[in-house]
Amino acid sequence: MTTFRFVYISLSGNTASFVKRLSQYLLEKHPELEIEAIDIKDLVKEGRPFFAISGAFVAFLPTYLEGGNGIDNGDQEILTNPLGDFIAFEDNASKCLGIVGSGNRNFNNQYCLTAKQYSQRFGFPVLDDFEMRGMLGDIKRIAEKIENLYGF
């Protein structure tokens, strides 16, 4: 049985909603799949330690930045740092197939900037992005990319 692993952090619920709907969509297409979704916010809230992840995963990250315009100021990540800490833990970064960013297009240059920063920091690709909670088209498009990564 193939396991898709999704590691994410969700503060407003948008990213959690997207990961849940993406998981349901993939399971409908591939009932033989197992999906492991790890919410880093829950790990931190429950005081559980980070761990070395057992296989390949895709990360999902909303953008929360401190003010500014995302070009020459306002590109400092806030609130979502625990996901970066988890990816940096032991050998986890080498198992990340890529990251999917989310955000609000109204923030122009800041849109999905944190995902781009993680891509540079850890050396994995930005696979795609979606706005807010994402639409069905986003789910289908991102599902196809993830299927390809896992060889489906």
From TrEMBL:
One MF annotation (Gene Ontology) recorded for this entry: FMN binding
Gene: nrdI
NCBIfam families: PRK02551.1
Organism the protein comes from: Streptococcus ovuberis
Gene3D superfamilies: 3.40.50.360
Protein name stated in the entry: Putative NrdI-like protein
InterPro entries: Flavoprotein-like_sf, RNR_NrdI
Superkingdom field: Bacteria
Classification via Pfam families: Flavodoxin_NdrI
